Amino acid sequence: MRIPAHSVCTAIRDDIVAGVHERGSRLTEELLARRYGVSRVPVREALRTLEAEGFVVTRRHAGACVAEPTEQEGADLLEMRLLLEPLGAARAAQRRTEAHLKVLRGLVRLGQERARRGNSEDLRSLGGWFHETLAQAAGSPAMTSVLTQLRHKIAWMYVVDAPADPVESWAEHGAIVDAVARGDGERARAITALHTERSGAAHRLRLTSGADRPDRVRTSQHPVNVTGLRH
């Protein structure tokens, strides 16, 4: 069985974002292949993709290394998200399917319920699924890809504080879905812009050492998840 390079790419990217591979550290094909239980071929392809995405750089005499983004690059990412997420919401209002609406409404119900109960553990992942689904509803694979990369990089560079009022935050999610369901692109754009601007204030740059990462939990070798792959 040949493991697809995109599966290896996802595994390496996830570990970079989680801080398992620290910024500036070397990424050797042999060690990565052993860690993820694959050959060096998909690792090599994955590193090329991650370099194109900005997570990896190739250095003279060192080879592939985890990138070390600057504070300015982080600020640029937040600004790009502030521009693109409202555009994606406006597009979603015109192009969403009933399946998208069903998922979005279900996530809003869950998010509002968890917010009222004060259960913050699930809210971060629910928020991520919400924005991922909203991006997919825009009906533009290119935009979805860019927004996904932005979310990965922002999660890599920033600690995000929980919203001061999660109930209000999820009310904004609900208002976005209502506008998308009505096909009101301008209102979807405006509410998303406000929501994104407010959430941006909760972002704090991580320490470059990775020592401040509470989510850094995977440190042992593990194979790539190959569930569902063909033999």
UniProtKB/TrEMBL annotation:
Q: Where is the HTH gntR-type domain?
A: 2-69
Q: Which domain of life is it from?
A: Bacteria
Keyword Transcription regulation assigned to the entry: answer is yes
Query: Molecular function (GO) terms listed?
Result: DNA binding; DNA-binding transcription factor activity
State the UniProt keywords alphabetically: DNA-binding, Transcription, Transcription regulation
Query: Which PANTHER family does the record cross-reference, listed alphabetically?
Result: GLUCONATE OPERON TRANSCRIPTIONAL REPRESSOR, TRANSCRIPTIONAL REGULATOR, GNTR FAMILY
Give the species this sequence originates from: Streptomyces griseorubiginosus
Q: Where do the record's region annotations for Disordered lie? A: 210-231
Q: Which residues form the signal peptide?
A: none
Protein name according to UniProt = D-xylose utilization operon transcriptional repressor
